[in-house]
Amino acid sequence: MSLDVYQDERRREWLSALDACLLILADQRLLDEVADTLLDNVLLAFDTPHAYLHIADSEGPIRAIETRGCWADGPPLDLHTEVCSRRETLRFAGGDHGIDGPVAAAPVYWQDEVVGTLGVGFTSDHMLASRSDLDELVTRFATIVAAAYSNSRLVVTERIGRREEEALLRAGQALSVTLHLRDVLSTILDELRNVVPYDTASVQELRDGQMVIVGGHGIDMDVFDGIGFDALTGGVPNSEVLRTNAPVIVSDILGDHPYWEFPHNAHEMSGVRCWLGVPLMFGSHCIGMLTLDTYQPNFYTDAHAKTALAFAAQAAIALQNARSFDRTRQEVIERRRAEADLRSANAILKQRMAEIEALQVNLREQAIRDPLTGLFNRRYLMENLQREVHRSERSREPLSVALIDVDHFKEVNDTLGHDAGDQVLVRVGHFLEAQVRDSDVVCRYGGEEFVVVMPDTPSAVAAKRAEEWRAAIEDMAILNGTPRRPVTISVGVTTSPDHAATSQDLVRAADEAMYEAKRQGRNQVVTAN
User: What is the per-residue pLDDT across 316-328, written as a single tens digit (0 to 9) for each?
Assistant: First the structure.
């Protein structure tokens, strides 16, 4: 293969891989769900079996490690570390990192932070190995990976925010359903567990210098209801919660911490290790505490505390309702404030969703290829056809359109499976693409339908060409088997200005002619009247 032919083929593979990557970014999916497909398209673009992708988010759940070829057993950590450290695309000579040809690796950036690397390796005789712009090509794909990473972070943030909002809203609704304190607190703790995990939890009311348990999960409330703990001594974290009106985290109650009277016997016997206490604030007053315990040390974070504070606000309202009916008006104010916070959070979430949707729209606008057949898609067809109609009007040359439908396609899917159906569409599409002139355009119109746009082609010539395609496809062994199952097509042909004057009318007339071919028994060509 000559270098020019190879480069032309690589250019097509490159554009196809870019299109596929852009379509992947349009999905609201996490990076680890699409990383393997992204890397497959990198291999396609560079015509090499050696590549890796290593993304590890230190601040969240986003992680993706995919490897191919000589790195199948794992990414080259030394290469990954060097690229992350130098923060630039690097190229290494043959023999480095387990490959006899050159290796190019690029950093993946997010907000000026390197979150991972993408690397590609080549054999020494690879035709791309000596290209001067190899580093730039690898960097471009790393930019696409960065966009997928950014999209993944938005999705994670949106999912967490939506889950917290829904749980908090349900907890707030419990206040209007019943005034029974234990039922309300039970609902609040149920919803809290959906967003902040815990093994045991309690709601405690401040009474005369003691924190008295009035609700809980994971503990026997028939035993613990009404039990109080000293809240004013400096040897327990409860007192710091009261003093600062802020959350307190004890990462390991059996480890080093400043609370010399903590844990008490009940904690030591339960086996819990990590403790989180948040104040129940009503107005500017702390009226109690919400405590969460887990058997895993070093578990709770500031993010957990912030979320728990929102639920603690609901628990505080429930306590205040139970304390005095006279304070109802104040409780309503707090609830309205919480609802305003919810609306504000919802507005932020909607804004983030709008940003994601805008990104999707932008990416979809760039996608003009059908991912299955590689043909132009319907959007491109309508744009191109409108231009051809205008050109035909200026040149006074005929413009013909053929709408092709695969006969009995549903039966192929139902009897042989969707893989066989995909095979039919790909083979038919490739056949049509090979038969047309450079000036013609072949598109997948939708489902099992294809459209061929033929500029400067009279109706009779278009019908003759369509008949040749029909006969050739009938004779093709598209589906293998015994006996061989033939694949046939029905074709409707229309011409501007003979049968229609606009792009929409052209497609509509071709569609009607195609359905007439169907009505006449299929496997034939019908020209519009």
Answer: 777 776 665 434 5
Average pLDDT on 378-406 reads 92
Q: Whole-model pTM?
A: 0.38
Query: What pLDDT score was predicted for residue 22?
Result: 46
Using CA atoms, how far residue 498 sits from 105, 399, 476, in Å, is 57, 9, 33
- Measure the CA–CA gap between 519 and 523, rounded to whole angstroms: 10
How large is the average pLDDT for residues 198-221? 83
Give yes or no for a contact between 199 and 189, defined as CB atoms under 8 angstroms apart: no
Using an 8 Å Cβ cutoff, are 39 and 162 in contact? no
Q: Which of 13-22, 189-198, 350-359, 430-439 has the highest mean pLDDT?
A: 430-439
Residue pointed to by tokens 């983030």 = 352
Tell me, what's the pLDDT at 484? 60
Torsion over CA of 160, 166, 171 and 172, rounded to 10 degrees?
Answer: 120
For residues 276 and 294, what is the distance between their CA atoms, to the nearest angstrom? 9
Cα 341 from Cα 356, distance rounded (Å):
23
Per the CB < 8 A criterion, the answer to whether 500 and 509 are in contact is yes
CA atoms within 13 A on the CB side of 175: 24
Mean per-residue pLDDT over the chain, rounded: 79
Q: Long-range pairs for 518-521 at CB < 8 Å and ≥24 separation?
A: 518/405, 518/407, 518/490
CA distance 187 to 173: 9
Cβ burial of 344 (10 Å; 0-12, 13-18, 19+) is exposed
| SS3 at position 408 | coil
Tell whether the model's pLDDT for residue 470 goes beyond 90: yes
Residues contacting residue 500 through CB under 8 Å, at least 6 positions apart: 494, 506, 508, 509, 528
**492 three-class SS:** strand
- Tell me the pairing of strands 525-527 and 489-496: parallel
User: Mapping DSSP to helix (H, G, I), strand (E, B) and coil, where does residue 227 land?
Assistant: coil
Largest Cα separation within the chain, whole Å, is 99
The DSSP H or E segment spanning 277 is strand 274-282
Question: What DSSP element (H or E) covers 359?
Answer: helix 328-366
> Strand ranges (DSSP E) for 382-459?
399-406, 441-446, 449-455
DSSP-assigned letters across all residues of 82-151: HHHHHTS-EEE-TTGGG-SS-EEEEEEEETTEEEEEEEEE--TT-TTTT-TTHHHHHHHHHHHHHHHHHH
State how far the Cα of 214 lies from the Cα of 237, in Å rounded to an integer: 19
CA atoms within 13 A on the CB side of 205: 18
DSSP 485: B
